[in-house]
Amino acid sequence: MDVLNLSQIMMQFGGVVAIDGLDLEVHEGEIVALIGPNGAGKTTVFNVVTGVYEPTQGKVQFKGQDITGMRVDRITRKGIARTFQNIRLFKEMTVFENVLIPQHMNLQNNFFSTVFRTGKARKEEEGMKEQALELLKTVGLLEVKDEKASSLPYGQQRHLEIARALATKPQLLLLDEPAAGMNPQETLELTQFIKRIRDTFHLTVFMIEHHMDLVMEISDRIYVLDFGKLIARGTAEEIQQNERVIEAYLGVSEDAENQ
């Protein structure tokens, strides 16, 4: 089943076409990567999926429902969460608070119950705290739950940002360059971490990434953008052998170089 389907997406800013007729599908349970040179339009795709931008034309479907141009908060409630290339944590709050706050997205209590802290509201709050602790345990951050987010090492901050996205209980998780700024050992650990949370939380993962070792190791399928246009799609092996991809990344094809 298609969890995410983009059909003929175009995103235009004035005279600049950032995405040009993109068709893309992400199937349930997959890890799918979107790659391409800087400025290819990758983050714009994420912004269209999550409602930051309404596409100039085309349709975004999530589990068969049209979510094109829907508000960011409504898309999150439907089951799509994302991280960002530049980590966006509540840095002066604790690790625990960073994971607790996003759960309010799914509060069931009404305004009256929340303000006057009825028994139902208190029970829901306690449940949220238990879920936050369980989530931190699952992602390996329980021991630092009372630390400020800003005090964590870089790799743990990345894990915390993913945990915060998981707190909204997504079905589709979008990761925007999760390995950015990581050393080789941290990147290796992240590869296993992404696989583990995919399996533990029964997620579908759609990610942007420049670390090719991670992309080739983890992806079920790969899409390649160049100047907003889709130039290739396929398995890691197919993408590695694709001459258009080589040309986009290196600026010249191997055949041309040898002539």
From TrEMBL:
Q: Which InterPro entries match?
A: AAA+_ATPase, ABC_AA/LPS_Transport, ABC_transporter-like_ATP-bd, BCA_ABC_TP_C, P-loop_NTPase
Specify the ABC transporter domain's residue ranges.
4-252
**What are the coiled-coil residue ranges?**
none
Q: What are the recorded Gene Ontology BP terms?
A: D-alanine transmembrane transport; L-alanine transport; L-isoleucine import across plasma membrane; L-valine import across plasma membrane
Swiss-Prot/TrEMBL keywords: ATP-binding, Nucleotide-binding, Transport
From the Swiss-Prot or TrEMBL record, what is one GO molecular function term?
L-phenylalanine transmembrane transporter activity
Task: Tell me which PROSITE patterns the record gives.
Answer: ABC_TRANSPORTER_2
List, alphabetically, the GO terms of the cellular component aspect. plasma membrane
Q: Which Pfam families match?
A: ABC_tran, BCA_ABC_TP_C
* Protein name stated in the entry: ABC transporter ATP-binding protein
The protein's organism comes out as: Holtiella tumoricola
Lineage in the entry? Bacteria, Bacillati, Bacillota, Clostridia, Lachnospirales
